């Protein structure tokens, strides 16, 4: 149907329904939130989904009938309507949920170059999926602007009140679009400055064009009101009307320029095949611009004639005539007939309607003739004509509900805020940022420094061969500088203990044995391994339960599909519906498998070291470590013995520093465990920002981050002091090692021997020691005990970390199981509902095909889709199968079940 309106409304932006909206939110909370249970937000999630469905239905119900549109838009523009309410709810939800949580599907405004600029007549392309709550809110906001313009366009401008209503509608539409432009930076990707538009119709240039189009049409209605003399001041003068008209012209020119810019910009993007604006809409704006340029010059020429400016009069009429002729060459395909008629017909004095082109041509001929005969004025060229001062009457006005939706939600004008008790996602993100910074701080300033200092202190090495204690000190000093081996690998403590304490157990071994016994020894490790197995089985049971429920639901869906053929296709298949849950289950199953392999490695490690661990925490250490009597003292000089004892003392000091570093690590863990107040502080800061009406960003929490991280500065200082002391002791060890080498023969640092003499003395020293193999056995025994101690600590740490890991995993698996249970329950309810409908339909067909009802002794029992057992039939009755009109066999309702039928789950 051809349009009877000379103004155009903005097209509505269409969207698709989103049945999975509520479930997606609940699943997100179940899998990510440790502060909110999914049940706590289920009701709000359903309300959100219902509100969106209502909004979609209201947009879909818009038609092209003017009366219907006015009725629709008048209801929508009430502040308590679902569209405004949904926009406000989105503005609040954005502060609570991740922006990319949900994928919405929206259609572009224009799909081709031939979309006609009339209400309801815009073509549409395929929908565009956008995972952005910001885009969803902005699309809804755009539709609010479109609804305002639809109401303004549909209003019959027959009196001043109607014209004011139309003007207000266009001004409100322009105001909403102006606010939409303010929100555009929210769609920008900071990581991709060259990001392309998300949708071809949603660019700053396209929205600017539509805003200026609304302003132009609001100004046009102002002009129309002035021409018809319906303003309070009465009929306006020609000069004033020309000022109103030139502003209309400027608005249309601005809209046309922005539209062309949007179209040009799209050619450089992925949307180069899409149309930001149809050619018919561009033609509409070009025709309107030319029309009002001509009208403005014509009205001003009348004003010039009255002021005896004959040259200016002729000049303006020439400009007006040229504007009309140029405008008539613009393509009119798709442009409404009233727009074309406006160009050809001018409302002048409200009595006689003549063609605008004819009026201008006639007046130009008259003025030229009068000037040639009487006034003899030189026609003023366009470049010399005084510019017409525009009179801008149209203003972009924005409703308070659009600018401050959160305030109106708070006071209850737009409904109750959804997810009000949910911690904002920015708070979760800020807590994660803080925890990452805290972990990085502890890793860089504590753990890595501890590891480096441990390696530094344990590189103070002698030889694995205890017979080389004296002669190879300089070689091992060189290895210290290169850092090839660690203290445990080369057994420096055991080697020195074997030399200095050849008959008694070293105190370091006794201390290690007592420490392991106090912690429970191997029984402690076995108990922890059993605990790990137990929690692993519990987690596997949770996972198996989820997988079993999904498999059962898939089986039931398949049976329903098989039983009722195409009748059950009214809902998504099991594979599609289960996709998200199945992916979660597969991912967690992979995690469980990897954890099981890690557990096996720890158990294998324990098995390899079990015997030595038993010795370390047993009472047979004296029997395990050989005693070699006093033979070791043979050949050792006093200076060597003193140097080795000095080394033993330094190494003991290094061990104490290492223990101190472990204490720092323990203190860091204690501080981390006690660091529970940061979330509440971040929430408090977030609430303060939100109360001020601002939006949250990570930079707002920097002060909180700095304050909370300052608690760990003491750890950094303690580790730095420990490191300085460790480096000093390592230097002393190097000096003692080198000194021992230089005095191993002559015993004097001031009188070093030559290399040849030192080598001869070294060889003699080695030969004299190799006759005592008991020394090597003792060193090896001490090395095994030292290694067992460190392996005990390693396995203990592995098992404790494993328990913590499984505890965290159990929460995820429990959330998965609960989500699967809810999903299976919902699917079961749907299946039962569908089955009931299909049974009722089948029963109707059976009743129609059978003249007499078939009596049965017992109604057919209802088989629950959850029930795994097969109900036993106690009564048998014969039944005649009814046939549908298509000839397919159909079961009678109430037919008794027989084992030969099998079970069909509903």
TrEMBL record:
Compositionally skewed regions (Low complexity) per UniProt: 873-890
Compositional bias (Basic and acidic residues) at which positions?
852-861
GO cellular component entries: endosome
Residue ranges of domain BRO1 in the record? 6-457
Highest taxon of source: Eukaryota
Under the heading Gene3D superfamilies, the entry gives: alix/aip1 in complex with the ypdl late domain, alix/aip1 like domains
Q: Which SMART domains match?
A: BRO1
The entry sums up its family as follows:
Belongs to the palA/RIM20 family.
Under what name is this protein listed? BQ2448_360 protein
Question: What species is this protein from?
Answer: Microbotryum intermedium
């Amino acid at each position: 149907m051809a349009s009877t309106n000379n103004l155009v409304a903005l097209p509505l932006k269409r969207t698709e329904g989103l049945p999975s909206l509520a479930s997606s939110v609940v699943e997100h909370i179940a899998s990510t939130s440790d502060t909110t249970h999914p049940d706590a937000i289920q009701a709000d999630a359903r309300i959100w989904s219902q509100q969106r469905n209502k909004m979609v239905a209201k947009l879909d119900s818009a038609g092209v009938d003017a009366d219907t549109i006015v009725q629709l838009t008048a209801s929508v523009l009430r502040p308590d309507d679902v569209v405004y309410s949904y926009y406000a709810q989105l503005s609040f939800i954005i502060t609570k949920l991740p922006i990319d949580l949900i994928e919405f599907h929206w259609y572009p405004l224009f799909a081709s170059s031939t979309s006609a600029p009339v209400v309801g007549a815009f073509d549409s392309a395929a929908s565009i999926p956008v995972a952005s709550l910001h885009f969803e809110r902005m699309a809804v906001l755009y539709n609010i602007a479109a609804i305002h313009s639809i109401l303004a366009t549909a209003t019959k401008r027959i009196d001043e009140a109607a014209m004011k209503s139309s003007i207000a509608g266009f001004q409100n539409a322009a105001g909403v679009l102006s606010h939409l432009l303010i929100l555009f930076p929210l769609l920008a990707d900071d990581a991709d400055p060259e990001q392309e538009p998300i949708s071809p119709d949603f660019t700053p240039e396209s929205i600017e064009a539509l805003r200026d189009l609304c302003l132009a049409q609001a100004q046009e209605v102002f002009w129309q009101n002035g021409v018809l003399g319906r303003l309070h001041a009465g009929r306006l003068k020609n000069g004033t009307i020309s000022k109103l008209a030139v502003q209309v012209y400027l608005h249309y020119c601005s809209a046309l320029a922005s539209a062309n810019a949007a179209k040009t910009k799209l050619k450089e993007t992925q949307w180069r095949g899409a149309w930001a604006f149809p050619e018919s809409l561009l033609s509409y704006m070009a025709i309107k611009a030319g029309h009002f340029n001509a009208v403005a010059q014509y009205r001003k020429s009348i004003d010039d004639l009255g002021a005896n400016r004959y040259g200016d009069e002729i000049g303006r009429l020439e400009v007006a005539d040229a504007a009309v002729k140029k405008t008539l060459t613009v393509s009119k395909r798709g442009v409404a007939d009233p727009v074309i008629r406006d160009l050809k017909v001018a409302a002048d004095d409200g009595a006689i309607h003549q063609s605008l082109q004819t009026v201008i041509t006639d007046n130009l001929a008259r003025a030229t003739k009068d000037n040639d005969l009487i006034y003899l004025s030189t026609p003023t060229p366009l470049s010399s004509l005084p510019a017409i001062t525009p009179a801008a009457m149209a203003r972009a006005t924005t409703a308070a509900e659009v600018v401050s939706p959160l305030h109106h939600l708070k006071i209850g004008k737009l409904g109750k805020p959804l997810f009000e008790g949910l911690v904002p996602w920015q708070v979760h993100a800020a807590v994660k940022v803080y925890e990452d910074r805290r972990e990085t701080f502890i890793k860089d300033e504590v753990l890595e420094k501890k590891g480096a200092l441990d390696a530094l202190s344990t590189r103070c090495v002698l030889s694995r061969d205890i017979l080389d204690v004296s002669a190879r000190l300089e070689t091992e000093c060189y290895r210290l500088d290169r850092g090839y081996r660690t203290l445990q690998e080369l057994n420096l403590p055991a080697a020195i203990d074997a030399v200095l304490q050849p008959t008694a157990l070293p105190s370091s071994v006794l201390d290690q044995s007592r420490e392991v016994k106090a912690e429970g020894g191997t029984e402690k490790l076995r108990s922890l391994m059993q605990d790990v197995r137990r929690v692993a089985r519990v987690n596997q049971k949770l996972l198996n339960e989820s997988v079993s429920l999904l498999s059962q639901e898939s089986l039931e869906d398949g049976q329903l599909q098989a039983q009722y053929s195409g009748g059950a296709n009214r809902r998504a298949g099991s594979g599609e519906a289960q996709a998200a849950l199945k992916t979660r289950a597969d991912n967690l199953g992979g995690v469980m498998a990897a954890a099981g392999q890690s557990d096996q490695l720890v158990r294998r490690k324990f098995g390899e070291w079990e015997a030595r661990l038993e010795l370390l925490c047993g009472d047979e250490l004296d029997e395990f470590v050989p005693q070699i009597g006093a033979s070791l003292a043979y050949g050792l000089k006093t200076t060597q013995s003193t140097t080795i004892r000095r080394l033993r003392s330094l190494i003991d000091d290094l061990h104490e520093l290492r223990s101190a570093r472990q204490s720092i690590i323990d203190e860091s863990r204690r501080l981390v465990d006690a660091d529970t107040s940061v979330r509440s502080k971040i929430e408090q800061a977030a609430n303060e920002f939100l109360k001020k009406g601002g939006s949250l960003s990570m930079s707002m929490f920097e002060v909180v981050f700095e304050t909370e991280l300052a608690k760990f500065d003491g750890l950094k200082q303690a580790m730095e002091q420990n490191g300085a002391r460790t480096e000093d002791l390592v230097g002393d060890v190097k000096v003692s090692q080198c000194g021992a080498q230089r005095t191993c023969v002559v015993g004097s640092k001031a009188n070093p021997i030559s290399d040849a003499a030192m080598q001869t003395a070294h060889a003699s020293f080695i030969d004299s020691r190799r006759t005592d193999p008991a020394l090597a056995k003792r060193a090896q025994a001490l090395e095994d005990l030292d290694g067992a101690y460190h392996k005990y600590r390693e396995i203990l740490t592995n098992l404790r970390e494993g328990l913590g890991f499984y505890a965290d995993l159990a929460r995820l698996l429990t959330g998965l199981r609960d989500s699967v249970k809810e999903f299976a329950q919902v699917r079961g309810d749907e299946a039962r509902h569908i089955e009931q409908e299909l049974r009722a339909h089948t029963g109707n067909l059976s009743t129609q095909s059978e003249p007499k009802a078939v009596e049965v002794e017992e109604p057919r029992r209802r088989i629950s889709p959850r029930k795994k057992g097969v109900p036993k039939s106690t009564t048998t009755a014969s039944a005649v199968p009814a046939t549908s009109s298509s000839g397919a066999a159909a079961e009678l309702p109430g037919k008794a079940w027989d084992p030969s039928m099998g079970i069909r789950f509903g």
